[in-house]
From TrEMBL, chain A:
<keyword id="KW-0812">Transmembrane</keyword>
<keyword id="KW-1133">Transmembrane helix</keyword>
<dbReference type="InterPro" id="IPR010457">
    <property type="entry name" value="IgC2-like_lig-bd"/>
</dbReference>
<dbReference type="GO" id="GO:0030223">
    <property type="term" value="P:neutrophil differentiation"/>
</dbReference>
<feature type="domain" description="Fibronectin type-III">
    <location>
        <begin position="430"/>
        <end position="525"/>
    </location>
</feature>
<dbReference type="GO" id="GO:0005886">
    <property type="term" value="C:plasma membrane"/>
</dbReference>
<dbReference type="GO" id="GO:0045658">
    <property type="term" value="P:regulation of neutrophil differentiation"/>
</dbReference>
<dbReference type="InterPro" id="IPR036179">
    <property type="entry name" value="Ig-like_dom_sf"/>
</dbReference>
<dbReference type="Pfam" id="PF06328">
    <property type="entry name" value="Lep_receptor_Ig"/>
</dbReference>
UniProtKB/TrEMBL annotation, chain B:
<dbReference type="GO" id="GO:0005125">
    <property type="term" value="F:cytokine activity"/>
</dbReference>
<dbReference type="InterPro" id="IPR040117">
    <property type="entry name" value="GCSF/MGF"/>
</dbReference>
<dbReference type="GO" id="GO:0045639">
    <property type="term" value="P:positive regulation of myeloid cell differentiation"/>
</dbReference>
<protein>
    <submittedName>
        <fullName>Granulocyte colony-stimulating factor-like</fullName>
    </submittedName>
</protein>
<dbReference type="InterPro" id="IPR009079">
    <property type="entry name" value="4_helix_cytokine-like_core"/>
</dbReference>
Length: 837, 199
């Protein structure tokens, strides 16, 4: 703030001093004389301030002249007052690029005069002057350069100077500040005539001139890219291609001049150009035919050319590619091979998969190559096993065959035979701990540990994409036995799995491989498996999921994580390893709905699946306990009360429970209507037998078709009713039976077996005859085939305990018919009676 | 004509000069420049002559001879193949004079043209060729060429039509003269062989 105010004062005073001078009648009070107003930075500056005697500010008083440089007061030690009107100052080192030097009086409250001093450096020599001729309309010679590295802090002017020899014409082009290029018009330079060009840089402290360029403007032209017209061959010129080319249409006038040409070639199946390009130093576009030799035979090449003026000037851009094929010869060199042998257990032959690749010395020397695998036969000839364009072949040979031969064939001939020994598969292992890691974006580093080296000859490293099992994708490399690592290169793709195997080969055979899978790069899987609820119990849920398909994994699965939470609850996580595709979500609140999703992680990223909702079944342990307890108590009470009733009211119960069977001796069967039975046993006909509770008349054997369980139940229950069963049994199936007359002969019993169902509403009843007549044992003439069980619509055949069910029972008989069915003997008697009638 | 020019015998002194590699180098440069002039005349004509009846491919020199005289366009000197009767020295001089004439004509017409970039470029090519011819003359040492000048030819161009006719006739005449120059130079080029027939 202070500084700027001070500068403002100085400016006004200096300006007023100048104004006074210009008016003529008013003389400035003082003058400053300096050695130079522009000085090299850091150099000393000398200045003298002279105050006029008649200056009103100093008339009649002694003054002390002081100096200020900018806003700083200069110490007296640097000033020398020669009188009270003259002062001389020496600034030993002027370190500012620009400053105002003023002299003042009265403690510098009055500035009497000042001078602006600038400091900097002389210009440096302009660097890197280059010129390029442009032939396109309008033609020009474009030059550019770089100023010196050092900032001069002073305005520096640049000018471009040309001198055209032979015609003695010189041109000077003055350029605006900070412009470091210029285009010389066509009429101010001469083609095929040397021109000298240089740049001058000039400021107040000096002049610097660049190194001059002397050149023919045609040499400085970057020609348009030429074009190749044809790439051909000449007869008997093996390994040679002949290129016919031309300059661009606009530069065809250069056809009489000598140019330099470069040719670069690459084989059509390679992505790299031959290195270095073939230089043809002297060509004429009029003879625009160039021959390139020492090329591979029978190989398609892509050629590009570029031109420049003879041995000088910038190269043009490369032309577009044109292809040509050299003359073919027979293949040369050998093939590297890799044979996988396995025993065929059905035919005792050996199954062989043979893979091969060209060795470094191999030359196909032709466009179309066929590979032939030959096997020696006992007659001394060779038998063709395969002929293929692929680089693999699978075939079978006898176990006695020790070697096969491989050869490459093209249209001209065939390569020397490569002998391939058949390694028998052996059990002994030689390697362990095979690992494979990405080495860079295109290769893997495979490492292994040798366990056995005795008899080891070498290793074979084999790799293949796991997503494409075609044998043509298998690649291999043979490795010296002393090596334990290999960098494998190939067209590996990221996020795709590769299987890498290392096979040890011994003198007497080949050992089993060690195999690892590897990814060049990994990322998150493409999909997340769907969570499936596998089991639910108490407050836990077991969820599982399917494996992610290999093509969608994108890396090694590191983990599965299931995140789940109830509403407003915290998130819980269960984690499973790659091999374990299930987790248990524990301690869930059965009253809540849970949200859950899965995150699958590879070593390259993770992916979240969609959220699912999980709800537990709405029962809890307390409810289960209460329900079970209530049922148990109820059953116990029922059993107790039934037993008590049986013992306390036996007779009454008998009368109630067992139906009153009419006395056949004192009654007419015709009058024994079903109603009476209904009366004595009112609830029976409406009662369907429980399909699970087993009932039977105990005096009969069980049908053999009963299940074991039913059988057991039956046996267990039979104890309770054995007396009843025995008492009534007149079954023709028990010939030893001897009836026993008693007051009350049980006719039949229906037994309630053990039951898992709820206690029935009404107690099971015994169907019983109260008749004292030996009812059945005297009816010898009546021997029914079987007892008909109490049947109803819902009863299955398996429930026919008394024999085969009669399927002939007409349907639709209801009411009384059913009651009759309840008493099969009686029904039989009734029917017999009616028949007799 | 080309084959006749090639087969014409050269005087012994001229023959020795022509065989000089440096002379041959200048000769080839001159051939390139001559070709450049020939290649650019068509473009230049279409850029500055807009009168439809004035076509470059028509032989208008005879039809416009009166106008040419009125405007003040001199005829180009006659250039023949170098022979015993038409020496190298004469040929170089005629080439020089013809080129100087056309350079002057173009420089007189150019200021009157709305689109002059291509005319200026052509004029520069003519100048450059003339410089190469001078170099060959210097090597011949039989004739020291006068310093190159850019003196314009005084033309009477009262109206736009005269300007168009003058530009047209100058270009037509320059084209014909350049063909003669090209033939003459080819007859001197020792490297010219079968390749010339290809081009």
């Amino acid at each position: 703030m202070m500084t700027s105010a001070w500068m403002l004062v100085i400016a006004v005073l200096v300006d007023s001093a100048n104004g006074a001078r210009s008016q003529g009648d008013i003389q400035p009070c003082a003058r400053i004389h300096t050695s130079s107003s522009v000085v090299p930075l850091g150099s000393p500056v000398t200045a003298t301030c002279v105050i006029r005697e008649d200056c009103p500010l100093v008339i009649g008083q002694a003054v002390h002249i002081e100096w200020r440089l900018g806003s700083e007061l200069i110490l007296n030690s640097f000033a020398a007052n020669e009188s009270n009107r003259v002062s001389r100052i020496v600034v030993p080192s002027f370190n500012r690029t620009e400053a105002l030097l003023v002299c003042c009086i009265q403690n510098c409250s009055q500035v009497v005069t000042g001078v602006q001093i600038r400091a900097g450096y002389p210009p440096e020599e302009p660097q890197n002057l280059t010129c390029e001729t442009k032939f396109s309309s309008p033609s020009s010679l474009n030059c550019e350069w770089e100023p010196g590295q050092r900032d001069t802090h002073l305005p520096t002017k640049y000018s471009l100077h040309t001198e055209i020899r032979d015609i003695n014409e010189n041109y000077t082009y003055k350029l605006p500040p900070d412009v470091h290029h210029y285009s010389i018009p066509r009429n101010e330079f001469v083609l095929f005539n040397d021109i000298k060009i240089y740049v001058k840089a000039e400021n107040d402290l000096g002049v610097a001139t660049s190194a001059p360029l002397v050149f023919d403007p045609v040499q400085a032209a970057k020609f348009d890219q030429p074009s190749i017209e044809t790439v051909g061959v000449e007869p008997k010129r093996l390994g040679c291609l002949k290129l016919k080319w031309r300059m661009s249409q606009q530069q065809s006038w250069l056809s009489h001049n000598q140019l330099s040409l470069e040719v670069r070639l690459r084989t059509a199946d390679s992505d790299q150009m031959s290195d270095p390009p073939i230089l043809v130093s002297q060509v004429r576009p009029t003879k625009a035919v160039t021959e390139c030799c020492r090329l591979l035979h029978g190989t398609r090449y892509l050629a590009q050319i570029r031109v420049r003026y003879y041995m000088q000037g910038p190269w043009s851009e490369w032309s577009s590619s044109k292809s040509g094929v050299t003359l073919e010869t027979a293949p040369t060199g050998r093939l590297d091979s890799w044979m996988k042998v396995s025993r065929n257990h059905t035919s005792k032959n050996l199954d062989i998969q043979l893979f091969w690749k060209p060795s470094k010395q191999f030359r196909a020397n032709g466009q179309s190559l066929t590979y032939v695998v030959l096997k020696p036969n006992p007659r001394g000839k060779r038998e063709r096993m395969c002929s293929t364009n692929e680089k693999w072949c699978a075939f079978q040979v006898s176990g006695r065959v020790r070697k096969v031969y491989l050869s490459a064939v093209n249209s001209v001939g065939e390569s020397p035979l490569t002998k391939i020994r058949i390694y028998q598969p052996k059990a002994h292992t030689a390697i362990m701990d095979v690992t494979a890691f990405p080495h860079n974006d295109r290769s893997f580093l495979v490492q292994w540990t040798a366990e056995v080296t005795l008899g080891l000859t070498d290793y074979v490293v084999e790799w293949k994409p796991l997503l494409n099992l075609d044998l043509s994708h298998i690649r291999f490399e043979t490795v010296n036995k002393n090596q334990s690592s290999l960098i494998i290169n190939g067209s590996f793709e990221p996020y795709k799995p590769y299987g890498i195997s290392v096979y040890p080969r011994f003198k007497d055979g080949m050992g089993p491989p060690q195999t690892v899978n590897a990814y060049l790069r990994q990322k998150a899987p493409s999909v997340v498996p769907k969570i499936q609820i596998k089991k639910t119990w108490c407050s836990d849920i077991e969820v599982s999921w399917d494996e992610i398909p290999l093509q969608q994994r994108n890396g090694f699965i590191k983990s599965y994580q299931v995140f789940y939470w109830e509403e407003n609850g915290s998130v819980q996580v269960e984690r499973a390893d790659a091999e374990d595709r299930r987790v248990i979500l524990k301690n869930l609140n059965t009253a809540s709905t849970y949200e859950a999703f899965m995150m699958v992680s590879t070593f390259g990223g993770s992916l979240n699946g969609s959220t699912i909702y999980v709800k537990m079944n709405s029962f809890d342990a307390l409810t289960v306990v209460i329900t079970v307890t209530a049922i148990g108590v109820g059953l116990a009470f029922l059993i107790i009360s039934t037993i008590w009733t049986c013992f306390s009211k036996h007779k009454k119960l008998n009368g109630y429970m067992w139906p009153v069977v009419p006395d056949p001796a004192n009654s007419s069967i015709k009058k024994w209507s079903s109603e009476s039975t209904q009366f004595t046993h009112p609830s029976w006909d409406n009662e369907e037998p429980n399909p699970i509770c087993l009932s039977h008349l105990s005096f009969l054997d069980l049908p053999t078709t009963l299940s074991k369980e039913e059988d057991d139940i039956w046996l267990n229950s039979s104890e309770d009713t054995s007396d009843l069963g025995e008492s009534i049994c007149g079954s023709p199936f028990i010939p030893t039976y001897s009836g026993r007359n008693s007051e009350s002969v049980p006719y039949a019993t229906v037994l309630l077996s053990s039951c898992n169902d709820p206690v029935p509403d009404e107690p099971h009843v015994y169907l019983r005859s109260e008749s004292t007549q030996p009812l059945l044992e005297t009816e010898e003439y009546f021997t029914p085939k079987c007892y008909q069980n109490v049947a109803n619509d819902r009863m299955s055949k398996e429930q026919c305990f008394f024999g085969p069910c009669d399927d002939d029972i007409p349907e639709g008989e209801e009411g009384p018919a059913i009651v009759w069915d309840d008493f099969p003997f009686l029904r039989a008697l009734a029917m017999n009676e009616s028949e007799n009638d | 004509m080309a084959s006749a020019a090639r087969s014409a015998p050269l005087p012994e002194s001229g023959s020795a000069l022509v065989e000089d590699p440096r002379f041959q180098e200048i000769l080839q440069r001159s051939r390139s420049l001559t070709q450049k002039i020939l290649d650019s005349i068509a473009d230049t004509h279409s850029s500055c002559v807009h009168t439809e009846t004035l076509k470059l491919d028509s032989s208008d020199i005879g039809r416009f001879s009166t106008m040419a005289a009125n405007i003040g366009i001199p005829s180009a000197p006659v250039l023949s193949a170098v022979s015993e009767n038409f020496t190298l020295e004469t040929g170089l001089r005629v080439m020089h004079d013809g080129l100087q004439l056309h350079q002057g004509l173009l420089s007189s017409i150019a200021p009157r043209l709305a689109e002059k970039d291509k005319v200026v470029a052509l004029m520069s090519d003519v100048r450059d060729l003339k410089i190469q011819i001078v170099k060959m003359q210097k090597m011949n040492q039989s004739h020291i060429a006068a310093p190159p000048t850019l003196g314009s030819v005084e033309l009477r161009l009262p109206g736009e039509f005269e300007v168009q006719v003058a530009a047209h006739l100058t270009l037509v005449q320059l084209q014909a003269f350049s063909w003669d120059v090209a033939r003459c130079l080819r007859s001197l080029d020792h490297s010219a062989g079968d390749d010339d027939n290809q081009s």
